[in-house]
Design a protein that fits this description.
It is a single chain. The protein is of the alpha/beta class and 274 residues long. The protein folds into two domains: 13-57 and 159-264, Vaccinia Virus protein VP39 (Rossmann fold, 3-Layer(aba) Sandwich), CATH 3.40.50; 67-147, Adenine-specific Methyltransferase, domain 2, CATH 1.10.1020.10. The protein is 33% helix and 19% strand. The chain is built from nine helices and nine strands. It has helices spanning 16-23, 40-44, 59-70, 72-80, 86-93, 100-113, 141-151, 199-214, 227-233; strands spanning 31-33, 52-56, 154-158, 173-176, 182-184, 190-192, 218-224, 238-248, 254-264. Strands 3-2-1-4-7-9-8 form a seven-stranded mixed β-sheet, sandwiched between helices. Strands 5-6 form a two-stranded antiparallel ribbon. Strand 1, helix 2 and strand 2 (52-56) form a beta-alpha-beta unit. Helix 3 packs across helix 7 and helix 4 crosses helix 6. The protein starts with 15 loop residues before the first helix and ends in a 10-residue tail after the last strand. The relative contact order is 0.16. It binds S-adenosylmethionine. S-adenosylmethionine binds at residues 8, 10-12, 34-35, 37-38, 40-41, 56-58, 160-161, 177-179, 197, 201.
């Protein structure tokens, strides 16, 4: 198992075994992952592909992958120069480095030493997550090198998920893990996340899936278990309800379990749950 070198909100490490059971016995042509985040699925997917296209809207994130892919030793060298303390954290947070490897090291360092690893910027586009006081921060050199190895021969891009519509071909696999628009808060109410990924975006994603199916390609979509989501994405293929343990947010945060949907047009070849 390759540990992703970033912490990421909505990361799907918990789903890797299920995905691998689902695709077991199938072969695909090219692989597309337009909502890359920490790439936990790509780093661990048990299949080989002709070409791999990895994308995310977050340009700083994609620039970081590009550096880890091409100059991982320089990124590690800079990371080793960054101590985990409050003064240095706030100092490095406001820096605009010119050197790309140093910029990537800054992104990885802030991701691991910040309060919760969430990527959040202010209206000027400046990263503004506070210091995390994490005592157990280590630079995971082994993971960085393994991820770098995995990224060789991949095609990285930054942009909207819809950019691949015209390129997807018969037999390709598209793994879709969008930000959730609807989620349950701790009172059981539904929160609509208008700014980050709107309901409109979910409908656009539904159209992408129609195109994928038209082209006889395959998709796997994970999304919140919610009626609205079911209405948009239940296209008569396979739907699984998955349960994962999670911290339910809000003032009275507590551990709980959350249900998520997985929609796919891949017919499972083995028995049992995915
Ligand atoms: C739930 S996360 C993906 C998590 C990933 N599967 C993992 O395991 O870490 C969703 C990602 O979609 C990206 N994103 C948001 N809007 C997007 C858009 N319109 N097109 C492409 N990516 C987008 C976010 O930057 C975020 O990294």
């Amino acid at each position: 198992m390759i540990t992703p070198f970033l912490r990421w909100a909505g990361g799907k490490r918990w789903l890797i075994n299920e995905i691998n059971r689902l695709i077991d016995g199938h072969t695909f042509k090219n692989y597309y992952e337009p909502f890359l985040g920490s790439a936990s699925i790509f780093f661990n997917i048990n299949s080989s592909f002709d070409k791999v296209f990895l994308n995310d809207l977050n340009e700083d994130l994609i620039r970081t992958y590009q550096e880890v892919k091409t100059n991982v030793n320089d990124v590690i060298r800079f990371l080793k120069e960054f101590p985990n303390n409050k003064t240095f954290y706030y100092d490095v947070r406001k820096k605009h480095f010119k050197n790309n490897s140093k910029k990537a090291a800054q992104f990885i360092y802030l991701n691991h030493t910040s309060y919760n690893g969430i990527y959040r910027v202010n209206s000027k586009g400046e990263y503004n997550v506070p210091y995390g006081y994490k005592k157990n921060y280590i630079i995971d050199i082994d993971s960085l090198k393994k991820c770098s190895q995995k990224l060789q021969n991949t095609i990285l891009s930054a942009g909207d998920f819809s950019k691949f519509i015209d390129f997807i071909q018969e037999g390709d696999l598209v793994f879709l893990d969008p930000p959730y628009t609807v989620s349950h808060n701790n009172n059981g109410f539904i929160e609509y996340n208008k700014n980050l990924f709107s309901l409109e975006d979910q409908y656009r994603l539904g159209e992408l899936i129609d195109k994928i199916k038209e082209k006889k390609a395959f998709y796997i979509l994970t999304n919140a278990a919610h009626k609205t989501i079911d209405n948009i994405f239940n296209k008569g293929d396979y739907k699984y309800t998955l349960t994962r343990s999670s911290t339910i947010g809000g003032k009275n945060a507590k551990r709980g379990s959350i249900e998520e949907y997985l929609f796919t047009n891949i017919k499972r070849k083995n028995d049992g749950n995915i």
